[in-house]
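Suppose a colleague, Dr. K., hands you the sequence of a protein chain of 591 amino acids and asks what its three-dimensional shape might be. Before reaching for any lab equipment, you can write down a predicted structure in token form. Begin with the sequence itself:
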Amino acid sequence: MIFGKTINKYYKKYFHMFALGLVTLIIVDYVQLEIPNYIGALIDELKLESTDQAGILEYIVDISIFVIIIIVGRFAWRLLIFGASRKVDYGIRNEMFAHAEQLDAEFYSNHKTGGLMAYFTNDLESVRRAVGPGMIMLVDALFLGGLAFYHMFTLDVMLTLFAGIPLLFIAFFGAVMGKKLRNKFKEAQHAFEDLSDFTNENLSGVGVVKAFVKERTEINEFLKANQHAKDKNIDFVRIQAKLQVTITVIVSTVFVVILGYGGYLVSSTSGLPADEQFTIGNLSTFILLFNALVWPMRALGMIINVRSRGKGSLQRIDYILNQEVGVKDGQDLTKVDEIKGNITFKNLTFQYPDANEPVLEDINFTIKQGEMVGVLGKTGSGKTSILDLLLRVYNIDPGQVFLDDIDIMKLPIKQVRNSIGYVPQDGFLFSDSISNNIAFGCRRDEEYFLQIQEAAKLSDVHDNITDFKHGYDTVIGERGVTLSGGQKQRVSIARALIKNPPILILDDSVSAVDTKTEETILSNLRSVRQNKTTILIAHRISTIKDADKIILVEDGKVIDVGTHKELQERSEFYRDLVYRQRLEDEIEVSS
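The predicted structure, expressed as tokens, is then:
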């Protein structure tokens, strides 16, 4: 068994299952140790000339009853204790996932997906084994072992001492090896994390690997990571094997001693009065009791192993659950019925938690409800960072960003994000049907499929979807790999449109579509987004030239705000962008 803040509450929650299971286990252990006494008595009874068939049958019936009790009892305690351990596993996994969903972007920038999966798989399995099998091993080692010793003492004290003294060596050796096992298991788990990270990244980016013909290089790197994980696991198993082999050698040696000394007792006491004899039946009972004791003796070593692994894994799980949720609601919240879509940035300066200097400096602009606004700038200028703050991905100082003249830090995060439809640059899609991907952000009512189709038409992807064999029920691959880049972007846009939010943000979300499709999508947005705020981040002038206003961003600063015409007249930076893109378009047409 293992204990800690994370797991103790589950012992309390499922106490009835654990308690009933342990009571049943103890009853089974008690009944199990009655069988050797009956078998020994039966052997001695068979030596007597007065033995009758009815007496033998009575012994057999009693032993059969004990066997039935053991069978039923073992089924019961397995159902209760193993069932409870599965419920603990289930509860902690849900708790971990729920907590992981709340952790901020900074945490995920420092922890890779493959490594995090190790917490949800290997570590949880180790904790479950420590809770279920570990508890059974502990009870058997204490109760079954103790009761077996008691029965053995009643048969012969000296023979019992010969059998019991080696347990001291097992306990000492186990205590020494326990800490080493725990440390080696942690090292093995870290190696597994690295291997999972590497595998996850390579399978996700297999297209890039193939494009650069780096299959052999990546295979060699995988072999190195795999070998490292193998070496760490072998180090752990080597110590584990030493512990088990030592226990096996001790148990086998004791068994030889019992046979030798027990045989001597049988022969040396054969001429004594019946109550002073150590009979063959007594020796048989003692051997059967010792066989029953072998499992508790082995369980001592296994407890050390299972507990060491479970404790190490619980510490790793605690690390995840103890991660503080950095982005969360404050205490002084302002609740409003709805957010209309007025946005104000006032003297905003922002620096990422792990950065050395600000990524945004003195940002000032206002967006009114119903406006379509373009945000234009070179790669790395800070456009996406501005929108991350609008989505409350990071904490900022109070009084810098306002929605409907209310400080965004005083608004509930859930309400802020519910009021925004966001289409990110990468257009992440789930490995699910197209309809479920589009409907991800909407309520599933009777007419939701009609809403899905309408959103798909607005994003100009409906015809593409109906061309698929299974239409909207087409299951796309991981991250939407079975769709083209333009189709993924348009499905992502449909997912945001079906939400019908007061604020819609498209972060360079039409870069993978052709000019005609882009014009269709923008035209549809203008018609359905009346009185709703729309923000378009773009690299192409064509995407935002008809916007109500354009915000120019350069090196983390807003350098100008105006219409396409106004910026052409007064901004050399904007004119340069227009000129360069015109040249690119001419080159593309001529080629």
